[in-house]
Write a structure and sequence with these properties.
266 residues, 2-enoyl-CoA Hydratase, Chain A, domain 1, 2 domains, eight-stranded mixed sheet, two-stranded antiparallel ribbon, binds zinc ion
């Protein structure tokens, strides 16, 4: 995003927006409705009850199991850029007073990619929900598995999906929110097996991105291919929810699907 102090330019329609208006509109373009990407911290602040977030699993760090060239440098750069140690921020929070287990992806950290640490944090988020009897809410934003950790990254797909089953067995709901982009190994694992899936408008959602599809010889695709709108039309997601309505929608879902958990605790 090109940004001066008072103005910035929409990444989609390229119109100039007042920074103050942009922030008040939750970084959604007032002209075209484009939902710009936001950090995990901002997402948590805008979605959950004020000061209710307690971060967990802050001690997890990636190694370089394959001795992949420049991986450690890339991790350090991402750490400096985002102030965190991996693409997932997880913990306990409250949503309109109701306890929830959350994990929030940050695309700014190596494209939100899922390596061992991100996979472990997602797994712990789901296990915490199952063990403590509270709904799980996961905000997805990822290009997919992290190639620098090779097979270990792909193993996270099976591990996180198995953790979803623990929520099922414990009778706790799991809600996934697809934000731009939700792709590849993340879409093909824990993201797409949630009880309820909502997406932000125009979020890119798919398995193989445009470049990979082209390499595979796919030349003709519908105009809205790999968008949240396409997924809704074809039954892959349940609803498209604008950022301004996300908190209210999640509150309603948690009350409806997790009401039995609240009654037990009351
Ligand atoms: Zn715009």
């Amino acid at each position: 995003m090109k940004q001066s102090e008072a103005f910035l330019q929409c990444q989609s329609c390229k119109k100039i927006i007042f920074s103050v208006d942009f922030e008040q509109n939750l970084r959604v373009c007032p002209y075209c409705g484009h939902h710009h990407r936001i950090s995990a911290e901002t997402r948590i602040q805008w979605t959950f009850d004020e000061d209710s977030f307690e971060e967990t699993d802050t001690d997890l760090r990636s190694g370089n199991p394959l001795d992949f060239p420049d991986y450690i440098d890339k991790l350090r750069t991402a750490e400096q850029k985002t102030g965190k140690f991996d693409s997932i921020t997880g913990g306990r929070a409250k949503l309109s007073g109701m306890p929830v287990s959350i994990a929030v992806a940050d695309f700014g950290f190596m494209g939100g990619s899922m390596g061992s640490v991100a996979g472990e944090k997602i797994t712990r988020c789901l296990e915490r929900a199952a063990n403590e009897g509270m709904p799980a809410i996961i905000f997805c934003a990822s290009g997919g598995a992290r190639m620098q950790e090779g097979l270990l990254s792909l193993m996270q797909m099976a591990k996180t999906t198995a953790a979803v089953q623990q929520c099922r067995e414990a009778g706790v709901p799991y809600i996934a929110v697809f934000t731009d982009p939700t792709m590849a190994g993340v879409l093909a694992s824990y993201a797409s097996v949630a009880d309820v899936i909502v997406a932000e408008p125009k979020a890119l959602v798919g398995f193989a991105g445009a470049r990979v599809s082209k390499q595979a010889g796919v030349s003709k695709v519908p105009d809205d291919f790999q968008t949240a709108e396409f997924c809704l039309k074809h039954g892959m997601i349940d609803a498209i929810v604008p950022r301004k309505e996300m908190r209210a929608t999640l509150t309603s879902l948690v009350k409806t699907l997790g009401g039995h958990l609240l009654e037990v605790k009351a």
